[in-house]
Amino acid sequence: MSRAALLVLADGRFPAGGHAHSGGAEPAVAAGRIRDGGSLEEFCRGRLHTAGLVAAGLAAAAAAGCDPLALDEAADARTPVPALRTTARKLGRQMMRAARATWPSAELDALAAARPRGAHQPVVLGLAARSAGLDPEDAAYAVAYETVSGPATAAVRLLSLDPFDATAVLARLAPDLDAVVAEAVAAAARVPQDGTGALPARSAPLLDITAEQHAAWPVRLFAS
């Protein structure tokens, strides 16, 4: 296993489309819930322990070799809002293109054929990690970090926030990141015995509501 592949997968320049999405930060900024480094940290911590944990569990299970189609159905069940399901599948389609070009595998090909309109992004990322020789913990770290780095980067653009402050937020979230990854990996390990119901299913209703509102904006900087 080459851990260097994790650097490629988690790199913000990996052409998986994430740069065009704010992870809910754009509507949060518009509503005044993200104003500065402190409120950005609060937002990211909440997102990490809800949507981030769910995504990390799915990615870890996919990297462990669990059925990606069953995981995709589990992701759908954990994503009640149409706007977020659409976003997850668009990002999954783009991740699939990048992953198949970088780490070709029969498993990626099979999932692409079964879900031509895109599987949920965490599932695709987990399978990409598996194809790259990475383990479930690596996949969970990549997804969990993306959960907070996306909003942090978006806040820099939306608020003209000092990039040093945004980076400091990510550094302070490191213990939370470790805890979320540990919980996600432990849950994924139970899937072969207990099914996908063992995966985290935490909700973030405010993120759901604002995602639907944001999708209807006539003008926006980010796709979601």
**Beta-strand fraction estimate:** under 5%
Low-confidence sequence ranges? none
What does the main sheet amount to? none
Q: Specify the structural class.
A: mainly alpha
Round the mean pLDDT to the nearest integer and report it.
Answer: 93
What is the assembly state of the chains in this entry? single chain
* Helical amount: over 70%
Number of helices: 11
Distance between the termini: 34 Å
Shape: globular
Summarize the helix and strand pattern as letters: HHHHHHHHHHH
Total strand segments = 0
Rounded to an integer, what's the Rg over CA atoms?
16 Å
Report on the architecture of this protein.
The protein has 224 residues and is mainly α. 70% of the residues lie in helices and 0% in strands. It has helices at 4-10, 25-30, 37-63, 68-77, 82-102, 106-114, 121-131, 136-159, 163-172, 174-194, 205-215. Helix 3 packs antiparallel against helix 8 and helix 3 packs across helix 9. The longest helix has 27 residues, at 37-63.
Provide key terms for this protein.
70% helix, 224 residues, mainly alpha
Write the SSE topology:
Elements: H1 4-10, H2 25-30, H3 37-63, H4 68-77, H5 82-102, H6 106-114, H7 121-131, H8 136-159, H9 163-172, H10 174-194, H11 205-215
Helix pairs in contact: 3-4, 3-7, 3-8, 3-9, 3-10, 4-7, 5-7, 7-8, 8-9, 8-10
Summarize the structure in short:
This protein has 224 residues and is mainly α. The chain has eleven helices and no strands.
